[in-house]
Design goal:
This protein is an alpha/beta fold. The protein has helices at about 20-35, 60-75, 180-185, 190-195, 210-225, 275-285, 325-350, 365-380, 400-410, 420-430, 440-460, 470-475, 500-510, 515-525, 545-550, 550-565, 570-580, 585-600, 605, 635-645, and strands at about 5-10, 40-45, 85-95, 95-105, 110-115, 140, 150, 155-165, 170-180, 200-205, 230-235, 250-255, 260, 270-275, 300-305, 355-360, 385-390, 415-420, 465-470, 490. The strands form 4 sheets. It has a 7-stranded mixed beta sheet with strand order 13-12-11-10-9-8-15.
């Protein structure tokens, strides 16, 4: 697919035990159905051509011959399709019987993978019939196909080299293991991933027992997460014999620890998803502990043309990738607030600070910072009266935000100070010979810097620390006054994006209730603004941040694509179009994408000297912890690609 996505599916079609012709017919029907959907990788269960529960019939040559004939039927059905298919069958070779997966594409059998670990405990008796994978690779004679076929004892790698119509190049590798191989301590998939496999398929016949589904999902999450891979798991379904076991067809698709799709037990459904191989390869480059195999050149790799150029049809990306959805949101908000307040408490304790000094504007960021500071003081058993909260109204302060600021400070029970800075700023204008009617950057930033000076001086006066209020989205865009709100003694919101700030404030509003809930709801309903320009004639906020730098929901989405997923501008815009289709047209999305890259690269010098702040998520802009970026790096590559889209 486009932009290094691969469309995958795991299916458990209707099955009759020991009837390979019938099973092949049902498998071919699924192949045709998935081909119409543009599926590029399709996985069927373990021993799906014979049935897993054949018992002693596995020793019958008639069944083995029937499975080979069925395999040829299925292989023929893949001719002319851009699809890689895996099916399971018993295979006799060199006097032994092996439980194998066969890889099929464009009418050919690419290779066999024998099962490495043969379970023979509890309800499993595979060792009665099957031998474990031999130590050396075998060649299956051409009588089965048009040529010799490798039987890979270390697992089979299938490679596809995709060349898109837009000049995109994409090399994806697929590895295979079978059922128990996943449950074993040394799974073949570990080596397969180290040898380049970004997708692992597993043909399984895992029966259903109480609690097994949950454990199965835990295994898949861990295996795909630690190996930085996608994992496509197809499990035997309800057509198997129920003499002593029942099989539920619990098909699963994981990507880097996250479940993308699941067919629920006994549903008979096919699990379908679009895995982001580009992201997985980016993660492997980033994580230095993921190492490639030392002798990769000795490992055979088959080639198949199974990659198409279709668009995404299943995969959905959240508009707010930094904000958890559903029930997870409340739990995550509580955890983040605990992280912020615990970190601040430690800093206050270590520095023996008597007070915390914080500027309250009546907006989102300073409200969150005050809430965190109150939590920290409660943790330390300190009086909230030692939190010195200052409101510093000036030229742009609106009545609404000033009322919000006073109300939240009163509800929090902190010490309140009001410092009117207008007169001092005007004296400063006279000192530097600036015309106050000239509402330029000097006019705006002089207010921000004066507020910071007041906070720092009050902190010195009271043996305290200035608590920073700025968030990660502002740092990304450089939307902060250098040596103004840019500076503090500890920055509690520095790795919290703007879209998440809203959720944290809303969470605390609900948790605290009463007067605090009322005022925080007022804060949440207030326009985001630095309030450095005078209000309009009605006293309303005239300077709206998102009109100037762009919507924060877009910039947070772009930041996530850029730093967390490693996406190119083209892939970012492609996904933004699908994610925000009902809100923004392509030109608007492109305009703010170009603006994002320009601002992000131009403003690194501000991030290079930011104060300490706690990291709460997977993305951080700290120059000490996460982002090693030169201040004079050029944005030309990213901007040029974005502008030419």
């Amino acid at each position: 697919m486009k932009y290094q996505f691969v469309k995958v599916a795991a299916a458990s079609p209707e099955l009759r035990v020991a009837d390979p012709a019938f099973n092949a017919h049902k498998i071919v029907a699924v192949i045709e159905e998935q081909a119409a959907k543009g599926t590029e990788l399709l996985v069927f269960p373990e021993l799906c051509l014979s049935g897993y529960t054949c018992g002693d019939f596995f020793l019958q040559q008639t069944l083995l011959d029937g499975c080979l004939a069925a395999l040829k039927t299925v292989a023929k059905a893949t001719a002319g399709l851009k699809m890689l298919v895996f099916v399971g069958l018993p295979l006799s070779a060199q006097g032994k019987l092996y439980n194998c997966a066969a890889a099929l594409s464009d009418g050919k059998i690419l290779g066999f993978v024998p099962k490495t670990y043969i379970p023979n405990y509890n309800e499993f008796y595979e060792a009665r019939y099957f031998s474990p994978a031999p130590e050396k690779e075998m060649i299956i004679p051409e009588a089965i196909s048009d040529g010799d076929i490798p039987c890979m004892t270390e697992g089979l790698l299938i490679r596809s080299d995709f060349g898109g119509k837009d000049g995109e190049r994409f090399d994806v590798r697929v590895g295979c293991e079978i059922c128990e191989d996943l449950w074993a301590p040394e799974s073949p998939s570990v080596d397969l991933c180290r040898r380049g496999a970004a997708i692992i398929v597993n043909l399984s016949a895992s029966n259903e027992t109480i609690g097994k589904r949950e454990y199965r999902k835990t295994l898949l999450a861990a295996q795909s997460g630690k190996n930085l891979c996608a994992y496509v798991y197809a499990s035997a379904g309800i057509g198997e014999s129920t003499a002593d076991m029942v099989f539920a067809g619990n098909n699963l698709i994981y990507e880097n620890g996250v479940c993308l799709a699941e067919s629920l037990p006994f549903s008979g459904e096919t699990a379908e998803a679009e895995v982001d191989v580009g992201f997985l390869l980016s993660e492997r480059r980033r994580q230095t502990t993921f190492t490639r195999a030392e002798k990769e050149e000795t490992f055979s790799v088959a080639w198949a043309d199974f990659m198409g150029d279709g668009d995404l049809s299943l995969r959905k990306f959240p508009q707010l990738p930094f904000v958890p959805q559903g029930k997870e949101l409340e739990r995550r908000c509580g955890l983040i607030l605990s992280m912020q307040s615990s970190a601040l408490a430690r800093r206050l304790q270590h520095t023996h600070a008597k007070t915390a000094v914080i500027g309250i504007s009546g907006g989102l960021d300073s409200s969150l910072a005050l809430l965190v500071t109150c939590r920290a003081f409660d943790l330390l058993g300190k009086s909230r009266k030692d939190i010195i909260a200052l409101t510093m109204p000036c030229f742009g302060t609106s009545l609404k935000t000033r009322n919000n600021a006073m109300s939240i400070m009163q509800a929090a029970g902190v010490t309140i100070r009001t410092v009117h800075i207008g007169g001092a700023v005007n004296r400063h204008f006279r000192d530097i010979e600036h015309d106050p009617e000239n509402r330029n950057t000097t006019y705006e930033n002089a207010q921000a810097r004066y507020r910071t000076m007041v906070l720092m001086d009050v902190a010195n006066e009271t043996d305290g620390l200035v608590i920073g209020t700025g968030d990660m989205s502002e740092l990304a865009l450089g939307w902060c006054t250098y040596n103004g709100d840019h500076m503090s003694m500890y920055s509690v919101n520095s790795s919290v994006p703007k879209t998440l700030v809203k959720s944290l404030v809303a969470y605390e509003a609900k948790r605290l209730g009463g007067r605090m809930e009322v005022v925080l709801k007022s804060v949440l309903g207030t326009e985001i603004s630095p309030e450095l320009l005078p209000p309009d004639e009605k006293g309303n906020i005239s300077q709206k941040t998102e009109d100037i730098v762009g919507p924060y929901e877009l910039h947070d989405f772009y930041l996530w694509c850029f730093l967390r997923r490693g996406y190119s501008p083209a892939k970012t815009l492609y996904l933004a179009e699908r994610t925000f289709a009902e809100k923004y047209d392509r030109e608007t999305l492109k305009k703010w994408l170009v603006r994002f890259y320009k601002r992000f690269f131009a403003q690194q010098f501000k991030r290079d000297c930011v104060p300490n702040g706690v990291k709460v998520g997977s993305v951080s802009l700290s120059p000490r912890a996460d982002l090693r970026m030169p201040s004079d790096a050029s944005a030309n590559l990213w901007v040029k690609e974005a502008e030419e889209l």
